[in-house]
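dumping this here before i forget
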Amino acid sequence: DNGVRDGAEALLSAGDVVSIADISAGKLSYLSAANSDKDGDSFTFSAQNTGKGFSAASTTTVNVNPVIDGV
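structure:
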């Protein structure tokens, strides 16, 4: 499955929490679907400041450049 993954390669789902330490350590990644003909994907997220609630939702778009396999 394509999507945003944590450092253990688990696909993140709505409501999952990722710490700033994990983000700073580069433990988030994006894996596109194999053999996809899509040029991109997007996901929506919000940030939480402990004790102050969540930010408004934001959407990030990931551009994926297709490559020809086996060349």
